[in-house]
């Protein structure tokens, strides 16, 4: 039977302390114990259901984690103060000095910088590969490799990872496959396709209101226990803990994620088709022209569509900047990084979110100057949005009038 991530979220039942339909927020950093023995047992990790200190866990964080684990179909989850807080702690939990990571080369700039510049300080090295080439991935694995890292839909090029295929490779070499699913929540369920760990930046679609940063690691109970271990757990010791008030507000937003994702996807599909028909170089996994369109189709939970992210190439950074400024001026969205907001957000990745990646490497991965990344909003009238965007492109000569409009057709 097909995996139904939104049902799994919906089916969780929460009661607040006084019967509230939302769980009570426990606004506490520390917790009382009725006996000293119980406190000792809790420190030793032997007192299930007892709270110790909120960097370790808190009721509100556990509620949110439970819902995200239900969405991803993993045993459990641990929320973090940011996506990077989730990604860095799970990588440092699974890798020690001398270990090696194989990572997709087209990943979020912060993750790339962490693997490229930061983890080598701890003698953890990374080989960056073209994740769509399974042979190249397998060839990069050595005896020291502990982790295979990728994004289901990559940032910013929207390459699609063959999660089943990667999982086979990971299992063959007994390494952990970590998938960052930030761009495709609900649409793709990496754990169901064989990923060992699923991470998210909650900052983006999942929270969806651009008012906070947050992250999560979804995985086995064993892994999450390790992350939270008071003696050697990376989440516990590095301390990127989410605040209870934020956990409660993200949980409330999570409840409408299925409706939002459908609207983001429908709007993005509409615009992608129009842009492509206009002759713009358009990348969107929902288009037949996308090299991994059929792969995405095989992996997806169909009702959520192909997601809200698309890119177009307008030829030069000057064109990209002019277009983004004009679109913002006409209130078609914001010139801003990040994604998953109700308004469309656009940015030029080469000079913003991927600026951590050196220029020559950007070229190698196919990141061109004129690329604009769009996170398509929840616009109620996407036809109107398209018409207005089209006008901007015509005014800036990014699109030329069609021959029939010049009266050249007979
Ligand atoms: C934003 C983002 C991150 C980092 O998340 P933060 O919440 O900003 O720390 C990681 N991966 C992807 C794909 C992202 O888009």
List keywords for this structure.
single chain, 410 residues, alpha/beta, Aspartate Aminotransferase, domain 2, Aspartate Aminotransferase, domain 1, 2 domains, 7-stranded mixed sheet, 5-stranded mixed sheet, binds pyridoxal-5'-phosphate
Task: Provide an overview of this structure.
This protein has about 400 residues and is an alpha/beta fold. It has helices at about 5-10, 35-45, 60-70, 85-95, 110-120, 135-140, 165-170, 220-230, 235-240, 245-255, 255-275, 295-300, 315-330, 360-365, 380-395, and strands at about 75-80, 100-105, 125-130, 145-150, 175-180, 195-200, 215-220, 280-285, 310-315, 335, 345, 370-375. It is about 35% helix and about 15% strand. The strands form two sheets. It has a seven-stranded mixed β-sheet with strand order 1-7-6-5-4-2-3, with helices on both faces. Strands 8-9-12-11-10 form a five-stranded mixed β-sheet, with helices on one face. Strand 4 (about 145-150), helix 7 (about 165-170) and strand 5 (about 175-180) form a beta-alpha-beta unit. The longest helix is centred in the middle third of the chain and has 21 residues, at about 255-275. The radius of gyration is 22 Å and the shape is globular.
Q: Can you lay out the helices and strands and say which pair or pack?
A:
Elements: H1 5-10, H2 36-43, H3 59-72, E1 76-80, H4 83-94, E2 100-104, H5 109-118, E3 125-129, H6 134-140, E4 145-151, H7 163-172, E5 176-180, E6 197-201, E7 215-219, H8 221-228, H9 234-238, H10 244-254, H11 257-277, E8 281-283, H12 293-299, E9 309-313, H13 317-329, E10 334-335, E11 345-347, H14 359-364, E12 371-375, H15 382-395
Parallel strand pairs: 2-3, 2-4, 4-5, 5-6, 10-11
Antiparallel strand pairs: 1-7, 6-7, 8-9, 9-12, 11-12
The chain binds pyridoxal-5'-phosphate.
């Amino acid at each position: 039977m097909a995996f139904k991530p939104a049902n799994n979220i919906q089916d969780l039942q929460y009661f607040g302390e006084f019967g509230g339909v939302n769980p009570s927020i426990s606004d506490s950093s520390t917790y009382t114990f009725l006996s000293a023995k119980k406190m000792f047992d809790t420190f030793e990790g032997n007192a299930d259901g007892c709270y110790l200190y909120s960097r370790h866990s808190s009721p509100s964080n556990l509620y949110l984690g439970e819902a995200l684990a239900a969405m991803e179909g993993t045993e459990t989850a641990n929320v973090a103060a940011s996506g990077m807080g989730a990604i860095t702690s799970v990588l440092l939990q699974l890798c020690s000095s001398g270990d090696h990571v194989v990572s997709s080369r087209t990943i979020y700039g912060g993750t790339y910088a962490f693997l490229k510049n930061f983890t080598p300080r701890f003698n953890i090295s990374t080989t960056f590969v073209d994740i769509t080439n399974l042979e190249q991935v397998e060839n990069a694995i050595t005896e020291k490799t502990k982790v295979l890292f990728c994004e289901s839909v990559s940032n910013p090029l929207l390459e699609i990872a063959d999660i089943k295929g990667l999982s086979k490779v990971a299992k063959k070499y007994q390494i952990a496959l970590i998938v960052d699913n930030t761009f495709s929540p609900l649409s793709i369920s990496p754990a169901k396709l064989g990923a060992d760990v699923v991470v998210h930046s909650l900052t983006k679609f999942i929270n969806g209101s651009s008012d906070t940063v947050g992250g999560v690691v979804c995985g086995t109970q064993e892994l999450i226990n390790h992350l939270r271990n008071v003696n050697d757990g990376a989440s516990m010791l590095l301390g990127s803990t989410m605040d209870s008030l934020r956990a409660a507000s993200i949980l409330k937003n999570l409840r409408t994620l299925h409706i939002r994702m459908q609207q983001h996807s429908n709007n993005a599909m509409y615009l992608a088709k129009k842009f492509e028909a206009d002759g713009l170089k358009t990348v969107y996994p929902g288009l037949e022209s996308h090299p991994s369109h059929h792969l995405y189709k095989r992996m997806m939970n169909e009702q959520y569509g192909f997601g809200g992210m698309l890119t177009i190439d307008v030829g030069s950074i000057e064109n990209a900047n002019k277009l983004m400024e004009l679109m913002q001026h006409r209130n078609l969205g914001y010139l801003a990084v990040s994604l998953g907001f109700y308004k469309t957000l656009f940015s030029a990745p080469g000079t913003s979110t991927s600026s951590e990646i050196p220029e020559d490497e950007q070229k190698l991965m196919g990141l061109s100057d004129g690329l604009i990344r769009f996170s398509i909003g929840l616009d109620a009238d996407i036809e109107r949005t398209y018409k207005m965007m089209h006008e901007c492109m015509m005014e800036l000569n990014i699109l030329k009038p069609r021959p029939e409009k010049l009266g050249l057709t007979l």
